[in-house]
Amino acid sequence: MISKSETNSPEQSEIENKIQKACKNCQRDRSLVELIAVSKRQPNELVKAALDRGYRSFGENQVQEAYVRWNSLKPLYPNLKLHLIGALQSNKAADAVNLFDFIHSIDRDKIAKTLSLEMKKQNKNLPCFIQVNTGSEPQKSGVKPNEAVEFARVCSQDYGLSIEGFMCIPPIDEDASPHFAFLNKLASHAGLKSLSMGMSADFEDAIRLGATHIRIGTAFFGNRSC
Ligand SMILES: *Cc1c(COP(=O)(O)O)cnc(C)c1O
Q1: CATH of the domain at 15
Q2: 98, 66 in Cβ contact below 8 A?
């Protein structure tokens, strides 16, 4: 029998090794951390190769681009999970609910309401994350840190959304660890169990600070084409 690691490309074994090591260092079970391979702006050949190696969890940040790639591919892989990790416009909510399995980027009241209506229409209840703007950056989406717990309550109790946890993208020029630690604390205040945090440059810190979903693009596939 061929083990999974033997079938991986060297690069991808390397990332898996790093994830395992990070889990071991903080005594977390590897199965508690889901690797989302962020396939945005990556060539189809690389995505197909990852599928061939058995990867089934992918992240995209644009609904339109995700549709082009996955709409015909998705039915061929029954246990494929697609994660929307980018900002969502209301007019794309129907497509997003139709294609994706997880939404990581609920960042305002209007989109929460729209998603809730759309999920009822399509008879779905996708697991969702609320994006928190932990660095309070004006150009970045996400709810304000001091509003996140109440917003999570409104989303689940008033809108009936399945809120699993919080997501963040720390400021590019800062140490990410305090942001991850803060998000973790916020999630326990809100009674939420999942944390979508950690990217290519900082997933080891994120794992140490409780990430349940790490979103890895370039460290998994290589540099993106623009
Ligand atoms: C692109 C993207 C990622 C992956 O970034 P890398 O640095 O390539 O790992 C993760 N999360 C979000 C929200 C992204 O848009």
Answers
A1: 3.20.20.10
A2: no
C-alpha of residue 2 to centroid of ligand 1, in Å: 31
The answer to whether the pTM exceeds 0.85 is yes
**Ligand 1 mean position, distance from CA 1 (Å):** 34
Query: Which range marks the domain in which residue 150 is found?
Result: 10-221
Which atom of ligand 1 is found nearest the CA of 224? Answer: 8
Phi, psi of 12 (to 5 degrees): -75, -30
* Interatomic CA distance for residues 55 and 8, integer angstroms: 10
**Of 52, 158, 157, 164, residue with least CA distance to 104:** 164
In a domain, 1, yes or no: no
- What's the gap between Cα 81 and its chain centre? 11
What is the chain's alpha carbon radius of gyration, rounded to the nearest angstrom?
17
Number of domains in the chain: 1
Ligand 1 neighbour 218 (Cβ under 6 A): yes
Q: CA 109, 36, 104 angle in degrees (round to 5)?
A: 5
Residue 4 lies in a domain: no
**Rounded to an integer, what distance in angstroms lies between the CA atom of residue 129 and that of residue 39?**
19
Pairing of strands 162-167, 57-60: unpaired
Which residues, including other chains, have CB under 8 Å from residue 63's CB and lie 6 or more apart?
84, 88, 89, 92, 95, 96, 99
Q: Is 226 inside a domain boundary?
A: no
List pLDDT tens digits, range 190-221. 999 999 999 999 999 999 999 999 999 999 99
